[in-house]
Amino acid sequence: MKKRFIPFILAAALLCGCGASNGTASGSSQASVSSAVESKAQSDPESKNESKAESKAESKAESKAESKKASEAVSKEESKEESKEEVKEESKADEAMHEKDDSIPEPDDTSSANNEDPFEGTYVDQTAGRGIILISKGDGITYNVTVQWSSSAAESASWTMSGEFSGRGVLNYSNGQKTVTTYTDEGNYTEEVVYTDGTGYFQMGNIDGTGETSVNWSDDKENIADGTLFVKQ
């Protein structure tokens, strides 16, 4: 009787062992799956945050690059406009410097051949013939001017000054000196310096129809030559 129950006891023991083994394996499998799920759940937010940070950084970099390109483009355009304006101003200045004024005398072929200066010479008053202007070349681009004016047989006046002619044929001066000379019946004379701070200008020109060179004298002290034209001899 005892021998018959032994196989049944062994079979039941084996069955219990298998069940326990299967339960353990199943538990282990479920634990692994749960761990994987939890790990994935924990890693996903981190991955998302990293991805967002990278995307944000890339967007900022792209925005900065575009802003820099835009600034460079604006700077280039402004530089071009400034260069154009500078060229225009320089062109205008050159035109003004080289602008020809028909009223300014120029040496003709004869004077060029003889190396004559267009301003040098003797200019005589065409109204009464009592005034004479002498223009001579000085040092560099300076011209010396002497004006002689006879008011009577017993008295005459002279003015001396110097200056530079501008591009429009005008010589301004501020160093005019007036001297009055008085003659006696015996042939003697005396000189008196009236002033040394005379100011004014000489304006060169051409007489219409004749081509003769002329000069007008504007004297700020006495206006002595107003309305008088001096013609080159």
Write the layout of secondary structure elements.
Blueprint: H1 2-98, H2 109-113, E1 121-125, E2 131-137, E3 142-150, E4 155-164, E5 170-183, E6 189-206, E7 213-219, E8 229-232
Antiparallel strand pairs: 1-2, 1-8, 2-3, 3-4, 4-5, 5-6, 6-7, 7-8
Report on this model:
The chain has helices spanning 2-98, 109-113; strands at residues 121-125, 131-137, 142-150, 155-164, 170-183, 189-206, 213-219, 229-232. A hairpin with a 6-residue loop joins β6 and β7 (213-219). The protein has an eight-stranded antiparallel beta barrel with strand order 1-2-3-4-5-6-7-8. The protein has two helices and eight strands. It is an alpha+beta fold and 233 residues long. The longest helix has 97 residues, at 2-98. Residues 1-34, 96-100 and 102-113 have low confidence and may be disordered. It has two domains: 1-99; 109-232, Lipocalin, CATH 2.40.128.
